[in-house]
Amino acid sequence: MLFLCPPALQAWALSDIPTVQGCFPSESLLGNFDYLLLRAKKNGVPDNLLARFPWISWFIWKARNELLFNGKQILPPDTVLHATREEESWRVAQVIAEKGGTGSRQISEQGNSESESPFPRCQVDASWVKNSKVSGGGFVFDLSPDTHLYGSFGMEQVLSPMHAEFNILLSAMRNSLQLGYTSMSFESDCLQLVKLINDEEDWPSMASEWNEFTHLFPSFTLHICDSFPDMHKCVSLEGASAGL
């Protein structure tokens, strides 16, 4: 049920956890969990992929219950998407817990040294393919020279690459706040997005994204850079606050 029914098979195939013929998925429930908990890691499957399997299993079960009890069909891509989001939220929560009582002091010290250091910073990028049912992207938090956090974000297909870029930026901003970082330099390679934000261009099709941005914006002292390698092209967003 969790592994061999057609929707489950498709969900596991979409999860990026490698399947092994005759081993995973198999008819043995214990064998499947033995693979996910032990053998997959020994076979070189990355930890960040294996970390998702409890959520994937749970959302496969939830999709089954929705179909049986409510007559609602949840497609396997949506199952994997929701599971991935939940795992990422849980992972961010663990980072916050590890910071403990020293978090406020660390943030203050980083804020004081903002002009002297490129940290903390966040690089964002999106992926959008025409005629696809989903889009997404990722972000990298460089909190110090030796501390890096990675995140990815999937969603239902949006109207354009610009919508995808904006949504990934918003996701990164939300995660930054969850981590306790209100002083953050956000970097994007999407020149059009930078121009949209800094010039406050009127894009009616992005009204919902812009509304969320204006809601998150006051929580930050932040910048948007138009190119990853060209740090001197960093454009301050502080001047845009008057129009928000």
Automatic annotation (TrEMBL):
CDD domains: RNase_H_like. InterPro entries: RNase_H-like_dom_plant (IPR044730), RNaseH_domain (IPR002156). It comes from the Eukaryota. Residues 124-221 form the RNase H type-1 domain. GO terms for molecular function: nucleic acid binding; RNA-DNA hybrid ribonuclease activity. It holds the Pfam family RVT_3. This is RNase H type-1 domain-containing protein. It comes from Brassica carinata (Ethiopian mustard).
